[in-house]
């Protein structure tokens, strides 16, 4: 019998994750993709949108490895990053002002109780007016990278969007291959308040929230001159995120995502589940 593995189940606005202090490599990195699929599977595993492994770092307080529920590794995750920061603080791995290594670069975060303010890498605005043929309709939106790729469409009524059906088609659209994209549908309520629904690559479904998607959506609304930062993002799970950034002639800078990162429970996993 393999020894049990301690983990914490956390969420950021309903985007939920399994976090493991992996500094002793209790989950071998070469097995992590498979372990993520097993642990994130609803009903059969713990169930989550992603797995986060916290490891030693030479350059920052810790290094993280982030895996989507389908086992794919992603460069960045805004909600997961907020959870990882709070996890590291609560387990004594880092102080309330911390940094961690990701495939998207070194990320800084500030902890204030349950709230975490996370600095995101400088976004890339890849296409501001992109038109896609999706089944029997023409969809226009913007395409950005906020650590991971995001397509953003501004709509009149976000409640009415068949997010799974349309999001899946856009995620797999030939325009975005081979890496694919996350897909966000945004309704602008006020110049500093939007509602966002996201179909997430690697979860292959709508999630209750997507941090990098909230940032991409907020920036897209500001680029369309319909919003001004800071922007409150109402997520599908009902919680609110705050997005801070500055639009300049050269692009976007000083990007932060703030919200609660909740520890739901600490658990112990049967080590035999990851053989
Ligand atoms: N599924 C995303 C990564 C997680 C993004 C999301 N959970 C967030 O909070 O930013 C991708 O593969 O691009």
How would you portray this structure in words?
It is a single chain. With 275 residues, the chain is α+β, with helices and mostly antiparallel strands. The protein has two domains: 5-121 and 261-269, Diaminopimelate Epimerase, Chain A, domain 1 (Roll), CATH 3.10.310.10; 124-253, Roll (Diaminopimelate Epimerase, Chain A, domain 1). The chain is built from four helices and 17 strands. It has helices at 32-40, 78-90, 163-171, 211-223, and strands at residues 5-12, 15-21, 50-55, 62-68, 97-102, 105-112, 115-119, 124-134, 137-145, 149-154, 182-190, 193-200, 205-207, 231-235, 240-247, 252-260, 262-269. It has a 17-stranded mixed beta sheet that branches. Strand 14 and strand 15 form a beta hairpin. The model has no long low-confidence stretch (mean pLDDT 97). 2,6-diaminopimelic acid binds next to helix 2 and helix 4.
Q: Which structural class fits the helix and strand makeup?
A: alpha+beta
Overall geometry: globular
Q: What's the count of strands?
A: 17
- Write the element-wise H/E pattern from the N-terminal end onward: EEHEEHEEEEEEHEEEHEEEE
Mean pLDDT: 97
- CATH class designation of the largest domain: Alpha Beta
**Which parts are unreliable, with pLDDT below 50 for 5 consecutive residues or more?**
none
Number of domains as seen in the coordinates: 2
Small molecules (ligands, ions, cofactors) in the structure: 2,6-diaminopimelic acid
CATH topology of the largest domain: Diaminopimelate Epimerase, Chain A, domain 1
